[in-house]
Amino acid sequence: MTDKPTVPSAGLRRDMEILELLAGHGDDRDADGFGVTWIAQRLGREKSQVSRALRALELEGMVERDPVTRRYRLGWRLFALAARTQHARLVQVAAPYLRGLTTTFDEDAYLCVLRGNLVLTLMSVPSSRIYHRVWEGISVPLLMAAAGRSLVADWDEQRVRDLLSATTLPSGLESAVGGTEEWLADLAHVRSCGYAVTDVELEDSTAGVSAPVRDHRGLITAAISVSVARTHPAARLHEIGAAVGETARQLSISLGLVPHGRPIMSPMRGSP
Amino acid sequence: MTDKPTVPSAGLRRDMEILELLAGHGDDRDADGFGVTWIAQRLGREKSQVSRALRALELEGMVERDPVTRRYRLGWRLFALAARTQHARLVQVAAPYLRGLTTTFDEDAYLCVLRGNLVLTLMSVPSSRIYHRVWEGISVPLLMAAAGRSLVADWDEQRVRDLLSATTLPSGLESAVGGTEEWLADLAHVRSCGYAVTDVELEDSTAGVSAPVRDHRGLITAAISVSVARTHPAARLHEIGAAVGETARQLSISLGLVPHGRPIMSPMRGSP
DNA sequence: AAAACTAGGTGCAACTAGCGCAACAGTAGT
DNA sequence: ACTACTGTTGCGCTAGTTGCACCTAGTTTT
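ok -> structure tokens follow
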């Protein structure tokens, strides 16, 4: 009926919706799982369908059910599979670098990658201060992420312009993100100095400093970002920025980048 | 036809087989992905079917395809979902404890959980020595895992006997695992002293030391294990064992265990 | 360069797996 | 007990998946 009759997606889509729902309640903290009925009406599907799907998913270990509350939550298999991802390797290598930054500055450090126009946080190393929100596995719009500027630093100008004009921002954040020219200047700064400073962030009153991580071909595959409390003077931001840039460079070398500072030649990116 | 006509499992099973195949080539290191045809004949399924399934999986982010080699590998979504698992929280909390052990003894430290009769390694902190194999996401039979004895320490005797008699061991490892009585004695040792020492392990010539991690209810939910080079004297094994036991106890407290010596288990634990 | 080979993708009719309804079975609250 | 739940199951019907054959695109052979 739709437009993809030949792709087996019906069952998978349902399963993914369920998994996303089990994972994604975002900021709620009642992680003790969800019942069949709740999921069903949240998804607008039949109870029976959800019940059977969950049973199948449980059989595969994608979800597991609390034996006493009979509620479902995400299962061990996801963990086992994720550990074999290339991202897992990246996290493994990056972990000591991030921890180094955190211990040096006592600020939260993050490792992020770009997925479409969203920034996915792979790993976070919280500072000693407060119990900070868990960011792993969370995606935020590119424009709103501290690591955003670093992740797109190598994009050609037109693509950046397209992104900025195409994205519609949530309420009253337009001014916070800054204009197109400002963005392009920031990207140039990343390419020349190796780090970016972002002034306005998502919700909390912190600035962000980030730097791109490159693979063996020199392509940006990830970014390190550090949130800095706004109470610091601007000079300190750049001090931290330099450190973050250097850390990202060393991480890149660990990932196979030849440590020769060469001009970034634009690798022709085909499809957006 | 079989016995589960009402559970939607056909598509899911196919997808899981694909994912497992993409994840699970075990010890190969060519992690540059796999092609459609290879997967299809490895699975004994139609090319077209696999092609379409992979496209659907890619659309959901469960797999991703290298744009140049056109090979598939596990995708970012798995990482995002796994980060929201309860296991992710466990790893987050346990990480500093494991790192503490590794830096103290310079031996590999692992965090494992029990899944059925398999021991799944959630996290490994390698020692500084050699590049050690990646164990995260790998399951090994309960009897062969260093953490095995700690994970089943609270099982009642009959259940342990059933397990030992039910399991068939691979070639010539029967003697290595040890007899039933020996196992039961080891479990008693875990309950009284808080750690287990395993002499014979999987492949490498290392002994293992492990200790159970308990949740807020006192139930064993995970285990820490440390592999110890056989060159150490036996006394050192117990020295490390005591440290691992203490670390596991502190981790348990971090997870909400009331740090009170419970009645039946270990009364002789001095206060720190 | 054409032929031969391979890997991956597509169109379509047949068929069966899974949907949805409704009835059923547990469990808790009153 | 009744009432109000949540979760599971039986079964006819339909829509989604299957498998074959064919097709496209890239790579090697002659």
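The longest helix of chain A spans residues 234-254.
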